[in-house]
Structures
1.
Amino acid sequence: MHLRHASEQIAMYRRIVLLLVSMYAVALVAEQRSTGARNGAEGLALPAPNSTTAYEPFFHEGRGYWERDYLVYVDPLTPRVDVYDKDKNVASVKVTIPGYSSFSLSDATVTTDGHLVISGCSFADEGGKIHCFIGLADRNGHVSPLVDTERFAPSRISTCDGTTVWAMGWLRAPPHFDREGGEPYDVLRLYRLSDGKIIESDLPRSSFPGRSRPSSPGGFESPELMMQCRGTILGIYEGASDEWIEYDSSNSKLTRWNLTRQTHHFMQYDRDGREVGFGLHPTFITGLAMLDSGDVYASFIHEARDGSAAATVGLFQLHKAGLEATWLQVGGTLGVYGEPGRFDELCGTDGNNLVYSRFGEHHWFFSAAPH
């Protein structure tokens, strides 16, 4: 009798265990499906590299970005732009502008046919008036044509066709021109190089948080503003308000998507002027790129300021739906910060390739878009 009773108890326990295991398996599958829907990691992976650079340039300050077959580096301390291809330093352009002995460069980009476009600001040698500018620079550093944007300081520039240049910037206020004025203006402008005329203007300053400058380029590790043109689409990552913005010049249509809010290196304010404090587990963007297809990718680093976990890095693809956009994980790129051979950060695009770095490697990698 005792043996029979024990056997019945064991059978009952087995049925309970099997039931619990079955329930857990169902829940796990449901959770995996739910997670896959949220992060998009299922089936999305970074292909193996198809080529690499022969070098890894060292930048003492600032950083370089790959675009249209070239790496472009703007030296923040001198008016110089270095342009690289995959194998060697193609050119180092020391910019000279008559009448402006002291000026700074804010950005540079390469046209589809390989010409260099620059932007910056300076005080004129005579009269001391502030002049900001956009222009085409040849390999000897001469800038022509030169567009005088006056008080409008272009922080980032991009071009779709080589004859017009998009500029996102801020309006300097007198008398010292070192601060932003309170007058209304658009932060995005399209200049025609041939005559310097503004042919498009959008993104009113009032449509961004008041206390944060939407045209701030950000620091070395975390770019807060990036702008790239592919075909007829201009794409803008704007970190102050956490938005992805697209302007389609074929129909003059502007679309703005709210992104999953990221923590920044500096104090942020919401649209009502309230301070948004720092969290213990911030996430910073380290690179962003838009391919010719229009697909957008970004790399992030996630930190634990309380020391509870190691910092992690990874590559993500932007998924746009309605007025909201989310970052979808790219499989095979998520890992611990600093682990040799692991994905480090996104450095730009080269045609349909993403350009990125790996920890401990002394060159950059080129891979087709994740699939």
2.
Amino acid sequence: MRFFNVCFIFVFVSMLAMPLVFVDLSSDRISVAENRILANRPLLSDLKNHPGTFIRQFDDWFKDSTGFREKLLVIYKAVNENKRLNNVCYTLGQTVYLMGEKGHHFYANNDLITKFQGKKFLSDEQLSGMAEKLEEVKRYLGEKGIPLAVMFCTDKESVYPEYYPKSIIRGPEPIQLDIITNYLQENTSVDIFNIRQALVAEKDKYISYQVSLGDLTHYNQTGAFFAYRELMKHINIYFPEIIPYKPDDIEISYDEKEIPDVKLKSGFTYQRLDSSFFDDVDVYRPFTWENHAYVNTDQNLPVILFLCDSYAQEYFIGKYFAQQFGRALFIHFCNISNIQEYINLFNPDIVVFESAERQLDPFADSVIGISELP
């Protein structure tokens, strides 16, 4: 065994040393593969006179002069263009995915893996603090005649656990999402629910998340449609006159990657407002999709305000609410502490808090951070 260990170490060190031994010392080199002139070796005299510049130039030269560089680029390009490796292991060399059963891929993130294993991802203090603050928000809105609904969207592995890699042991039922939802339902009078069972009920007929291509972190447009219908069950308690769309009201088409696109057969009657709509509003906007507003041609319809994440953007459920409300406003939940400003300015008829399952930690902290309401 010792002999094999020594051989392994020798081979490993040799692999590391070979590119260093065969460093290209020539000058005025051109990389055909990259279509650029490679860096030249800096003058040694610059080390004394301009040490900072020398270090930067030496780093550029060394990266461009490593032995077997052109051959390594060929290998890298082949790996990068290999569809099987690219789809299973990574996207653009950055986002890692797990390869599950029957071709299903799952977004690989340590927090998501431990969540699948049934480990707690909200503390008792977060749960109790969120329950207390949600009850306070409901009271504040109730005094203005505004109902509150809280929806938790679910991650792919919670709807399709049977396709998760078998090497990762699944946690027990109920999963943490259901435990969190049940705790808040039992300890508040707020209308709180998650969409897990609604999507599970449809998965024999529809694929609610991408199998292996495209966006694997969100539900797809089909899953979003049934999430919309689940939320409408709660909105209809307060607005029974708004008739939810049925599967017969939509058309589902698929592109070459079998990614669904869902459209209303009747078309849409709303328009998206320019982002300047929020210029006079206190919002944090790291991404363009996180805060958006829509106006309908029928201004007599009620106004809905979402404090949400990307699961509620127009591409997913947002378009249905923009279609069925006079104004539909979507602001990222990281701004939830400004809820008084939004209520006073927008005068919504209903408020919806929404969070993805994997975002419940920052969502809970954002809710707890709401200042005391009058």
